[in-house]
Fold this protein.
Amino acid sequence: MRRAIRSLYASQLVEGRENPDGTLTLVLSKNGKSRALTFKVEEMRIKKPERWDGKWRVVVFDIPEKRKKVRDALRGHLRQLDFYELQKSVFIHPYPCDNEVDFLIELHQVRPHVRTLIVHSVDNELDLKTKFHLA
């Protein structure tokens, strides 16, 4: 719990407000309110920009076996968003998708097990460009 609260403070999504009785209340910051996400998972889509910025968005996860159903659900949602599966736990997409991925991470409560990367090149980039109709 403390780690999660520290992470929220560090991301500047929440602010602490001290109450008259000495307790602390966490409230969404202005930044947090603008990032508050509401999606219908089945209708969620990643918007295609007019021009591709040449960067790849990679989602890597290592979710424990005891949470296999959650792991499989995350895989399914990433596929639904048209991510390409490089490996069982490595997915890639060419367009900005931070909000959508953050929503899925929070929905499945897997933040400690998921990393997101933005990379400039991939060794099979020609295949990926074809798959995403970028070539």
